[in-house]
Amino acid sequence: VAVYRKLAETVRILAMNGRVIVVGRAGNRITRDLKGGYHVRLVASIDWKMKRVSEMAGISAGEARNLIHEKEEARDKFIREFIKFDVTDPHNYDLVINNTNHTAEQAVPIIIEGMKARGLLSQ
């Protein structure tokens, strides 16, 4: 808990100074009241995640599935119980992108256009 509080404090200081990208669960919760933020959630199917983890970690698809389940369950529980935040609620984000259907290269211009539409980047 003390470690998370220090992390949250550091993330807020960085965000207040501007021009940072915060990657990770609850980053939008930590910075929700700061002006100029744009909150994006990336989601993907379990099959997409399994393939990526399997390739990156050099493990079987079954091992990847177990690892994904274990990590997501632990993170979601911590955020739900400690931070009181539902990471799955799309209303907590400005944009939700499905990585199953969009590559990182495709997602970047989508995010940029969303930020432009909100007046966070110049047209």
Provide an overview of this structure.
There is one protein chain. This protein has helices spanning 2-17, 27-31, 46-57, 61-83, 104-117; strands at 40-43, 95-98. The radius of gyration is 16 Å and the shape is globular. The protein has a two-stranded parallel sheet with strand order 1-2. The protein contains 5 helices and 2 strands, in the order ααβααβα. The model has no long low-confidence stretch (mean pLDDT 92). The longest helix has 23 residues, at 61-83. Helices cover 57% and strands 7% of the residues. With 123 residues, it is mainly alpha-helical.
Shape: globular
Tell me the series of helices and strands, N- to C-terminal.
HHEHHEH
- The strand count comes to 2
Question: Which percent band covers the strand fraction?
Answer: 5-15%
Cross-sheet strand order for the largest sheet: 1-2
- Which parts are unreliable, with pLDDT below 50 for 5 consecutive residues or more? none
* Subunit arrangement of the protein: single chain
> Roughly what percent helix?
55-70%
Our measurement of the CA-to-CA distance between the termini, rounded to an integer number of angstroms, reads 42 Å
Radius of gyration: 16 Å
* Count of alpha and pi helical runs: 5
The computed structural class is: mainly alpha
Q: In this structure, how is the largest beta sheet organized? A: 2 strands, parallel
Mean pLDDT: 92
